[in-house]
Specification:
Elements (H helix, E strand, L loop, with lengths): L4 H22 L6 H12 L11 H20 L4 H30 E4 L2 E4 L6 H26 L2 E8 L2 E9 L14 E5 L9 E6 L4 E8 L2 E4 L3 E3 L3 E5 L8 E3 L7
Helix pairs in contact: 1-2, 1-4, 1-5, 2-3, 3-4, 4-5
Length: 256
């Protein structure tokens, strides 16, 4: 079997550069391009293990060492946590990319009849890899950043009304700045399926399209995990879908 060392080296270098670039974007590392190139070069030299007669365990250890050197070369060493986080995201990105490419290879290269798979003579080549790998990584980066940004806005909430405790999943919506116009209390929104009290106040509120009256309930207190206990607020009862959360927290509650 012929092995084109230059082609294998180039592909290795390309994928390592792509993975290191992915880590730098997701973790917001301010890294110069020459360090990315140098880190990718360190990773690409692993192709020489193809010509070494070593055991699987030894090969695994060598790959771990090379990946650590890649991270240290690219991002430098600041502390253990910083380095381990860079290493973790490098492995995660590698598994995401490798898993997608393996899936595509199976889809293109194999046919299925029942539970039997057989090779149909097709295979994804290096041009396919070069074209589709950045697309896969782009989708992964976009989803990872969206998940990271959204996750930071979710909070566990304990809501106390008339000495009754409600355990809720809250989401901070920067668009929710509803304030009681009389006593200037911030208002959080809870679906009426969770809290449907007969004792409520009618509070005038301004929405994007119109002015309306919102049913509100006085609360004893609210405990937002990681933020603290707040007492001076109202709970607005709404029948709108809250998209998988129990309540929409008021942006004012997160201040102070």
């Amino acid at each position: 079997m012929k092995i084109y060392v230059d082609l294998v080296f180039f592909l290795n270098f390309f994928f390592d550069l792509l993975l290191l670039f992915t880590v730098s974007i997701i973790l917001k590392r301010n890294i110069k391009i020459r360090r990315l190139l140098l880190g990718a070069f360190v990773g690409a030299i692993s192709i020489f293990t193809l010509f070494m007669k070593i055991t699987t365990l030894t090969l695994f250890i060598i790959k771990i060492i090379i990946s650590i050197l890649m991270v240290l070369t690219t991002f430098k060493f600041k502390n253990i946590y910083y380095t381990l986080k860079n290493l973790l995201y490098l492995y995660t990105s590698s598994m995401i990319l490798g898993g997608f490419l393996y899936f595509l290879n199976v889809q293109f290269s194999y046919k299925q009849e029942g539970l039997i798979f057989y090779h149909n003579g097709l295979s994804i080549n290096f041009i396919f890899l070069i074209i589709f790998s950045p697309i896969i990584i782009y989708i992964y980066i976009r989803q990872a950043k969206e998940l990271k940004n959204n996750y930071a806005n979710y909070y566990k909430v304990d809501l106390y009304i008339n000495k009754k405790k409600y355990k809720l999943n809250g989401f901070v919506d920067t668009g929710n700045k509803l304030i009681d116009p009389y006593f200037h209390k911030p208002i959080i929104i809870v679906n009426k399926k969770i809290i449907d009290s007969q004792n409520y106040l009618l509070v005038p509120v301004n929405t994007i399209n119109k002015k309306s009256l919102l049913k509100c309930i006085k609360v004893d207190k609210i405990d937002i995990k990681g933020v603290g206990i707040k007492k001076d607020l109202l709970v607005g009862i709404s029948d709108v879908s809250l998209e998988g959360v129990d309540c929409i927290l008021n942006y004012k509650l997160m201040e102070g």
